[in-house]
Amino acid sequence: MTALEPTPAAPVLPDPGADAPPSAARPSRLRHLAAVLVPPLLVLAVVVVAWYVVSLVVLDEREAFLLPPPHELWTDAFADPEIRADILDALWVTTQTALIGLAISVAIGLVLAVAMARAKWVERSLYPYAVFLQCVPILAIVPLIGFWFGYEMFARVLVCVIISLFPLIINPLQGLLGADRGLHDLFTLSHASTWTRLVKLQLPAALPDIFVGLQIAAGLSVVGATVGDLFFGRGAIGLGLLIQRYSSRLQSAELLATVLVACLLGLVVFWFFGALGRQVVGRWSTAWGAS
Question: What is the CATH number of domain 82-281?
Answer without folding.
Answer: 1.10.3720.10
